[in-house]
Amino acid sequence: MQGYSNLGGRQSFVVRTGKGSKNYAALAQLHPLGIIDAELVAGSWGDMATIKEYTPAYKLAEIRTNLHKSSIAIFISELIYRTVREVEQNDELFNFIKRSVLQLETLESGVANFHAYFIVELCRQIGYTPEDNYSESDPLFDILTASFTNLPTLADLSLSLRSSFILAAILNTKPEYLCTLKINGNERYVFIKDMIKFLNHHIGYPVEIRSLDVLHEVFE
User: Fold this and answer.
1) What is the pTM of this model?
2) Does residue 112 lie in a domain region?
3) Of 139, 153, 159, nearest in space to 200 by CA
4) How many folded domains does the chain comprise?
5) Range of the domain at 189
6) CA angle 192-2-17, nearest 5°?
7) Which of 96, 91, 30 is CA-nearest to residue 63?
8) What does the alpha-carbon distance between residue 84 and residue 187 come to, in Å, rounded to a whole number?
9) Is residue 166 part of a domain?
10) What value, to the nearest 5°, has the Cα angle with vertex 104 and ends 101 and 109?
11) What is the DSSP annotation of the chain?
12) What CATH number does the domain containing 175 carry?
């Protein structure tokens, strides 16, 4: 199992889930973006720690049962898995992920825009912050410089005009106001693909998110 720990960053874990284990009854809590309190046994399976016992820190009923939120959770989990590779303590990133999970759980409106908001915030957290300098005279987001301009460095390394506008809007929108963003499903899909292209360039390797197409269908 893959997870992000408050003490060790991204890690792989072995989970004891036999019927005689205390973990068996809590198996349903091991879902995408689940938050657990765990007792670990270090390095007991190769280089992986074993989760000896765990309990859910939050019930997260919405994320487990709401189709839209659970689909977003799968996308966010895969995005973190593909982009975050540091295996050391990072309190700021851990708290961001935890805060985002709780925001998704409690969000009542604007849910369809949450994953678009999350990918922008994740870019900030991992060191690729888009500059918030959008204007009518600089309406295109340049991937190379991570800023808005009227003439991108390379035409194929810029966001579309609409995606650039959406990025500028998200940079200035709090989660509770995501419902105010008027973005249709196709625009959101293209925007996410554009932001993945932005991550591809700055991370230095291709980021393939297989769950994106499924998520797009869920919100169609």
Assistant:
1) 0.91
2) yes
3) 159
4) 1
5) 61-218
6) 135
7) 30
8) 26
9) yes
10) 170
11) -EEEETTTEEEEEEE---TTSTTGGGGGG-STT--EEEEEEEEEETTEEEEEEEEESS--HHHHH-HHHHHHHHHHHHHHHHH----S--HHHHHHHHHHHHHHHH--S-GGGHHHHHHHHHHHHTT-PPP----SSS-EEETTTTEEESS-SSGGGB--HHHHHHHHHHTT--GGGGGG----HHHHHHHHHHHHHHHHHHHSS----THHHHHHHHT-
12) 1.20.1440.120
Tokens standing for 5?
């720990």
Instruction: Give me the residue label for tokens 């975050």.
Output: 84
Q: Are 67 and 75 in contact (CB under 8 A)?
A: no
- Residue 11, domain member (yes or no): no
Nearest CA to 116 out of 75, 80, 160, 146 is that of 75
Q: Which residue has the tokens 């992000």?
A: 4
Per-residue pLDDT for the chain (220 aa), expressed as one digit of tens each?
889 989 889 888 888 766 655 555 556 678 999 999 988 887 655 578 888 888 889 999 999 999 999 999 999 999 999 999 888 899 999 999 999 999 999 999 999 999 999 999 999 999 999 999 999 999 999 999 999 999 988 878 999 999 999 999 999 999 999 999 999 999 999 999 999 999 999 999 999 999 999 999 999 8
